[in-house]
Write a structure and sequence with these properties.
about 280 residues, alpha/beta, Alkaline Phosphatase, subunit A, eight-stranded mixed beta sheet, 14 helices
Length: about 280
């Protein structure tokens, strides 16, 4: 089995190259296709949307009910990237820092405080948002309230969304905050959407999951529609969907192969959970 060409740890260095953000060179690499695309379309700002659990196979299964995401994929780029784990916190940390979990050691929100207490200047947990802020660029983040606190004093524009049992309401609030942040014309905006991930735990094939996919696509469409010209969108899933035992009876052969490959690589401390990135000039 071949290793994937790209990793989610490549996103931060790619943003660094596009926006000319100085950062300590991480483990991830620049995705040249996206960098070239940004130059070709004269992209001046980047919006990163992390749609939790929206992996490549899940997108392919539901792309017919995701018109906003499908439009980005059709008119931009659709790339497969390997994930770095099975859970949200380490994956988001890798997306934002450019390092795998065994290097950034962030497996929960509280780990950020613990690691920084040991070494407050440690570059392996410094996010691309912080590097951007240090360089004088306008960076903004929309994330759950506890996660937002980890950026306090490091990124000027924070939008902490209170956690709630109504995860669709959470995503709606996050989308509204993202649109508000875009009104301040940031150079870099990161947004975390969570409804697919939450519903996957309880209803992998039911109406609730499909509704979460539709709602996520609506959020993507609202954010895209509120951005100005010269905006590059990067949309990724973080990790594969949870609840494989519920997924498997209705999984396609390709989905089963992808899952088996993921487990094979996990035994070698590498996770090949395929994720989607769409980049689009608006």
């Amino acid at each position: 089995m071949n290793d994937p060409l790209y990793s989610l740890a490549d996103i931060a260095p790619t943003i660094s190259r596009i926006l000319s953000i100085p950062m300590v060179v991480p483990d991830g690499n620049v995705i040249s296709e996206i960098g070239d695309y940004a130059i070709e379309h004269d992209c001046k700002r980047v919006v990163l949307i992390i749609a939790d659990s929206l992996g490549f196979a899940l997108y392919r299964r539901f792309e017919d009910i995701m018109p906003a995401a499908s439009s980005l994929a059709r008119h931009g780029l659709l790339l497969e990237c390997s994930s770095v784990g099975r859970h949200t916190s380490p994956c988001i940390a890798s997306i934002l820092t450019g390092y795998p979990p065994e290097r950034h050691h962030v497996h929960s929100t509280q780990d950020i405080y613990r690691v920084r207490a040991k070494d407050p200047a440690r570059p392996r947990i410094k996010t691309i948002l912080e590097w951007a802020d240090d360089a004088g660029l306008k960076a903004a983040v929309v994330i759950e309230s506890e996660g937002a606190q980890t950026f306090r004093g490091r990124v000027k524009e924070l939008h902490g969304i209170p956690d709630t049992l109504d995860i669709d309401d959470y995503d709606s609030s996050a989308t509204t905050s993202a649109i508000g942040a875009l009104g301040q014309d940031p150079d870099l905006l990161a947004v975390h959407l969570r409804s697919i991930d939450r519903h996957a735990h309880s209803s992998l094939h039911g109406r609730e999951l499909k509704e979460a996919v539709r709602n996520t696509d609506t959020s993507i469409g609202r954010i895209v529609g509120s951005a100005g010209t010269g905006t590059l969108f990067l949309i990724c899933g973080g990790h594969t969907i949870h609840g494989w035992e519920k997924w498997k009876p209705k999984a396609t052969d390709e989905e089963i192969r992808n899952h088996d490959k993921m487990l094979w690589l996990l035994s070698r401390d590498v996770n090949d959970a395929k994720e989607s990135i769409w980049s689009c000039f608006l």
